[in-house]
Structure formats: structure tokens, C-alpha cells
TrEMBL record:
<keyword id="KW-0472">Membrane</keyword>
<feature type="transmembrane region" description="Helical">
    <location>
        <begin position="267"/>
        <end position="285"/>
    </location>
</feature>
<feature type="transmembrane region" description="Helical">
    <location>
        <begin position="76"/>
        <end position="98"/>
    </location>
</feature>
<feature type="transmembrane region" description="Helical">
    <location>
        <begin position="198"/>
        <end position="222"/>
    </location>
</feature>
<dbReference type="InterPro" id="IPR020846">
    <property type="entry name" value="MFS_dom"/>
</dbReference>
<dbReference type="InterPro" id="IPR047200">
    <property type="entry name" value="MFS_YcaD-like"/>
</dbReference>
<keyword id="KW-1133">Transmembrane helix</keyword>
<feature type="transmembrane region" description="Helical">
    <location>
        <begin position="356"/>
        <end position="373"/>
    </location>
</feature>
<feature type="domain" description="Major facilitator superfamily (MFS) profile">
    <location>
        <begin position="201"/>
        <end position="433"/>
    </location>
</feature>
<feature type="transmembrane region" description="Helical">
    <location>
        <begin position="322"/>
        <end position="344"/>
    </location>
</feature>
<dbReference type="InterPro" id="IPR036259">
    <property type="entry name" value="MFS_trans_sf"/>
</dbReference>
<feature type="transmembrane region" description="Helical">
    <location>
        <begin position="104"/>
        <end position="121"/>
    </location>
</feature>
<feature type="transmembrane region" description="Helical">
    <location>
        <begin position="234"/>
        <end position="255"/>
    </location>
</feature>
<dbReference type="GO" id="GO:0005886">
    <property type="term" value="C:plasma membrane"/>
</dbReference>
<feature type="transmembrane region" description="Helical">
    <location>
        <begin position="133"/>
        <end position="152"/>
    </location>
</feature>
<feature type="transmembrane region" description="Helical">
    <location>
        <begin position="43"/>
        <end position="64"/>
    </location>
</feature>
<dbReference type="Pfam" id="PF07690">
    <property type="entry name" value="MFS_1"/>
</dbReference>
């Protein structure tokens, strides 16, 4: 009963995010399958799918200004209408040179929708309940993404029904949030930070955010092509995606909690090397069932890397700079995701479908090698261990919700940094790059 009472202020928001992510998760996979059916090459599909992440990055800078100008509900309605319209326009103009700008527009609008949702969650949740509410939000998030893949069973990607379902789901996401009687929150200005400063004293965390993006962007965009080329039917493609997402949902927490109690860079190194090994084994899987098992394990490892990188950064940040520094990590992860579909798609065009796991294995092997180098040659400045929080690529508002209590606790701890280190890090992070 207490848990239900805790969720009452944010119930309408959670319904909206579930419907929104059902539509978004289905659209991302559907476009890859439809493009394959239309004869688009893997390289062309990679370029198209990268457009979403380009829009995502641009939206991280635009969304706050738009919300401050229009308010949360009007911004949500504005961007949801754009997303639903863009989903249908893919049916009207079936050409790569139209799909690419449509993906950019969609990505920009979608991250604005997520910013609206997460800033509203942040304001409605009591400070002592934010961690639990964020956990529920992540369950809804990953559950909707996994369920969305199973909606592929409704109809053929070559038809129009699935695109209509996506538009309906995104439009329905408007209903719970526009019916709420709660006061709209205000969105604050984001503190400025310096990526150059982050690279100076937390390079492993930044590298992990960027390179995990290079891998995860390829997974989201090109896995449907890979599964199709291996002989999976449409339902099988959805199953491959769902299995990886479920693996990520189930294994993130035990991996993260283990990293809280042990040397986090060492845990990160083992996770990324194991993820590389699992990806490298995929071309040799003797059956579809074995490949599904590998995707489950890989999903658990790969989905853990970005939150591990954020936790590693928090280990090394002054409390005042947690949100700003973590927002920079989000941009780096998004930049990696934007490049990934083009790189993976180009490799798949040259060497075939198995180019995807080969690409992912190489990216993770590179990150693992760098992590080993950093651990042997450089000692990180860590005097406090942050708590791992499971997450997927999100907005800066979610990062504030996760780490708000942590900031307060750390700020009250006089031993967090020596005084001269505290001032050095604050000056470095707040100065412009």
C-alpha cells in the first residue's frame, strides 16, 4: 500500500512513458526491417538510424529552452504530435534521403518528451522517495522497450498497420499527462561544465560512455538486420531484441551492486572484456537458441557499462558538479551512438551480417585495452564510492533525480576531498572548455 501511495503523484506520468516507449521501441526496430525489405543497404540503413541519435544530441541542448518557453504539457503535446506525424511520414516517402531528416526530427522531439517526463518525475517525487520512483521508472522503461518488440507479431513490416499502431501509441501517451490536475513544474538552468576538465581527471569514465555508445548504437540500429540475415523471421527478430533488453534489465543491478563493493574500474574492465568475448562468439553460435542465450548475457553486460561509467565519474566528482558532469557523459554516449550505425552498417556491407558482432567486439576490446592501461599506469582520485543506479540513455533530468540525495550526503562529508583538491576540481569543472 505504501508503494502504491508513493506512485500516486506520478501515476499518470508512468502511463504516458509506457505508451510512448512502446511506440518508440517498435518504430526503431520496424524502420530497420522495413528498410531492409525496401532494399536499403546496411550502410544506408546505418546512416538513417544515426539520424535519430544526432537529433537526440541536439535535443539535449534545445529541450530545456523549449520547455521553459511553452510549459511541460504544451511542449509534450507539441513534440508528441511531431513524433506521431513523423512515424506516418515514413510510409508516405519511402526513400533514404527523406527518412534521414525524419529521424533527426524524431530524435530531437523524442528527447524533449523524455526531458518533460523526467523533469516532472523529479519535481513530483519526494526527496526521500526519488531513488525508488526512479527504479520503478526504469522497470517501466525497459519493460515497454522489451514488450514493444513483440508487437512486430501484429503485422508485416511491409504493410502500414504497424506504423499506424506506433502513431496511435504515441498519441495515446498524450492522454494521461494532459489529464493531470497537478501543477506543472519549472525546469531550471543547467550548470555549465567542462568536458575538457572531465577528460583531465576521469578519462576512463568518459571513454566508457563514448565507446559504450559506439556499441549500443549499433545494437539498437543494426541488430534487426543481423537477425534477419541469420534467418530469423519477424517474430524471431523481436525475440532477439527482447532477450537482450531483458538481460540488461535483470543483470544490471547485480553487476552494479558488485561494483559498489569492489574496485569499480576493475569490475568495469572485466565486464567490457566479457562483453567483447560474448560478441566475438556470436558468429560461431551453432543454433538460434544458442545465439539468444549469448544475446541475453551480452545484454546484461553491455547495458551495465554506461551506468558503470556514470558511477565511476561520480566517484571522482565534487558533489556540486555531479549533475553537470553526468550530463556531459550523456552527450558523449549519444555521440558514440550517432557514429555507431554508420560504422557498423558500413562494415556489414563489406563483410556481411557478422560484421555487427565483429564491430561490437572490436569496440569493447578497445575499451578493455584502454581500461587496463589506465588501471596500470594511472591511479584515479577516488575518496568516496557512489551507489550504482541502473539506467538507459536518458536525459539530464534523470541524472539529477538519481544523484540529488547523493549530492547532499557527500556535501555534508568534510572528508570527501582535501580542501585544495575540492577547490581545484570545482574550478576545473565550472570553467569553460
Amino acid at each position: 500500500m505504501r508503494s502504491l501511495a508513493m506512485l500516486k503523484p506520478v501515476r499518470s506520468i508512468l502511463w504516458s512513458v509506457a505508451l510512448l516507449l512502446l511506440g518508440n521501441g517498435l518504430l526503431n526496430t520496424l524502420l530497420t526491417l522495413r528498410g531492409t525489405g525496401e532494399g536499403f543497404s546496411s550502410a544506408v540503413l546505418g546512416m538513417i538510424m544515426s539520424g535519430y541519435f544526432v537529433g537526440f544530441i541536439c535535443g539535449t541542448w534545445v529541450s530545456g529552452r523549449l520547455i521553459r518557453r511553452m510549459g511541460h504539457i504544451r511542449t509534450f503535446g507539441f513534440c508528441a504530435s511531431i513524433c506521431a506525424t513523423v512515424a506516418l511520414l515514413h510510409l508516405v516517402f519511402i526513400t533514404p534521403w527523406v527518412w534521414l531528416p525524419l529521424r533527426v526530427i524524431y530524435g530531437l522531439s523524442f528527447i524533449t518528451l523524455i526531458t518533460v517526463i523526467e523533469s516532472w518525475l523529479n519535481s513530483q517525487a519526494a526527496s526521500h522517495e526519488r531513488g525508488r520512483i526512479f527504479a520503478v521508472y526504469m522497470v517501466v522503461n525497459l519493460g515497454a522497450l522489451a514488450t514493444a518488440q513483440q508487437l512486430l507479431r501484429l503485422s508485416s513490416p511491409q504493410g502500414f498497420l504497424l506504423f499506424v499502431v506506433i502513431a496511435i501509441l504515441i498519441s495515446w501517451a498524450l492522454l494521461p499527462i494532459t489529464m493531470t490536475r497537478r501543477v506543472q513544474p519549472k525546469i531550471s538552468e543547467r550548470p555549465k561544465s567542462s568536458l575538457r576538465a572531465l577528460l583531465g581527471f576521469a578519462p576512463l569514465a568518459v571513454a566508457c560512455a563514448a565507446l559504450s555508445g559506439l556499441a549500443m548504437g549499433a545494437f539498437w540500429s543494426m541488430t534487426p538486420v543481423y537477425a534477419t540475415q541469420l534467418g530469423f523471421d519477424i517474430a524471431g527478430v523481436g525475440l532477439v531484441m527482447s532477450v537482450a533488453i531483458i538481460g540488461g534489465a535483470l543483470l544490471q543491478i547485480p553487476i552494479g551492486r558488485f561494483s559498489d563493493k569492489h574496485d569499480r574500474p576493475k569490475v568495469m574492465t572485466w565486464v567490457v572484456l566479457l562483453a567483447a568475448l560474448v560478441a566475438a562468439a556470436m558468429p560461431f553460435a551453432p543454433s538460434h537458441e544458442m545465439l539468444l542465450g549469448l544475446y541475453f548475457i551480452w545484454g546484461g553486460l553491455a547495458f551495465s557499462l554506461y551506468p558503470l561509467a556514470v558511477a565511476q565519474l561520480i566517484d571522482q566528482l565534487h558533489p556540486d558538479e555531479i549533475v553537470a558532469g553526468s550530463a556531459d557523459m550523456l552527450v558523449m554516449h549519444g555521440a558514440g551512438c550517432a557514429v555507431a550505425p554508420i560504422a557498423a552498417g558500413s562494415l556489414m556491407t563489406v563483410v556481411g551480417g557478422h560484421g555487427l558482432p565483429i564491430y561490437i567486439a572490436c569496440v569493447f576490446a578497445l575499451l578493455g585495452a584502454y581500461a587496463i592501461y589506465r588501471r596500470r599506469r594511472v591511479t584515479a582520485l577516488v575518496t568516496h564510492t557512489a551507489h550504482f543506479e541502473p539506467m538507459v540513455q536518458s536525459s539530464a533530468e534523470a541524472l539529477e533525480m538519481i544523484f540529488d540525495d547523493a549530492q547532499r550526503d557527500l556535501f555534508d562529508d568534510p572528508s570527501f576531498y582535501e580542501p585544495h583538491e575540492r577547490e581545484r576540481l570545482r574550478d576545473a569543472l565550472t570553467s569553460k572548455a
